[in-house]
Amino acid sequence: xxxxxxxxxxxxxxxxxxxxxxxxxxxxxxxxxxxxxxxxxxxxxxxxxxxxxxxxxxxxxxxxxxxxxxxxxxxxxxxxxxxxxxxxxxxxxxxxxxxxxxxxxxxxxxxxxxxxxxxxxxxxxxxxxxxxxxxxxxxxxxxxxxxxxxxxxxxxxxxxxxxxxxxxxxxxxxxxxxxxxxxxxxxxxxxxxxxxxxxxxx
Length: 202
Fold this sequence. Notes:
With 202 residues, the protein is mostly beta strands. It is built from two helices and 14 strands. The protein has helices at 2-8, 53-56, and strands spanning 16-21, 37-41, 44-52, 64-69, 76-83, 93-101, 112-117, 122-126, 132-134, 137-143, 149-153, 155-160, 163-168, 199-201.
């Protein structure tokens, strides 16, 4: 009989914080009742952050985050523990799952914003007029030591009012044609007038 009583005990598979309960003491339950409790294992919560495809590619497991619930001025530390390998074809977004310790101010099921710190990199930033596109992708023209135009294929990042961030393809010390590049061909000789553009921290 002791074995039969033991089989009737309902035990959580792990210790944690009870989030919801859909059963009352003395209530008769059966296989059709579904989940009786929702438990946050170890008292940990997570936020599922939706990010654009290009932003998701910059993240890695272990990146730190600051999570701010909607309507709150407080933020809470978190850590990226999983990055979705799948991108939604409709929204072009993916999911980063950020793990946090429980705090009474965090409401399961609520909404929040997250600032994820994936490291700071100094990258060239150019005016939109300097970045051209064709069937081979994005590119710019740089001016070599003989003042001739040379095509350089680039990978672009964020576009803001300050310009386009160049993720790869340039070192940051080249002479880049800032305007009228569409009228150039590789090898054309030019007379450059130099100006300075700022780097972007991302």
